[in-house]
Write a structure and sequence with these properties.
The chain has 181 residues and is an alpha+beta fold. Helix content is 30%, strand content 31%.
Length: 181
């Protein structure tokens, strides 16, 4: 349970009430990968894939997120791609594949849930753009913003390589991140 949910449920703000999660990341061709790990206390939908359920998430520049979820019986794969249309518009493409044929009748419901989830992104981006119009200093903090810092570091290196005509080498090193949940 996340800290906000814990507080909403009436648990006091006590560090002992939280669990710490640690995840390992490694550089990939043009991004970074959250290495394969078992999803602790898998939610019921994940349990349909079998138990234990493992996941791996890859982020690749310029705009790709690939998540592979595997259980002992079935697997699923989620692919998200951001496609710039012009300087102000980006189209989000989301594909979900699964190996459970009996889920096919649920496809309209899953599509609706995905659309509701993806419709949240434009609002967040619009709010960010409004804030960035005031040219605030970007103060990314260690921990919570580490993945954003990695993204920006890789992006700067890619831009440098393009300017200089040199080949890209991922500047990241393997790392572990830890957070309270």
């Amino acid at each position: 349970m996340c800290p906000l949910c814990t507080r909403a449920a009436g648990v006091k703000n006590n560090p002992d009430a939280f669990n710490f999660e640690r995840r390992d990341f490694e550089p990939s061709a043009r991004g970074f990968t959250l290495k394969r790990h078992v999803i602790p206390n898998s939610a019921k939908p994940y349990k349909l894939l079998g138990d234990p359920v493992q996941t791996e998430i890859r982020f690749e520049l310029p705009s790709l997120r690939l998540e592979i979820i595997e259980g002992t019986r079935h697997a699923a794969c989620s692919l998200t791609v951001l496609a710039p249309i012009d300087n102000q518009t980006t189209r989000v493409h989301q594909c979900l594949y699964w190996s459970t044929p009996w889920l096919l009748p649920a496809k309209p419901i899953l599509k609706l849930l995905a659309e509701v989830f993806l419709d949240q992104a434009p609002l967040v981006v619009e709010q960010q753009q409004e804030g960035l119009e005031h040219h605030p200093p970007l103060t990314l903090i260690e921990g919570a913003d580490t993945q954003a810092k990695w993204y920006l570091r890789i992006k700067r290196e890619m831009e440098r390589c393009q300017r200089e005509g040199s080949s890209f080498t991922n500047p990241l090193s393997p790392a572990s991140l830890e957070w309270m949940c």
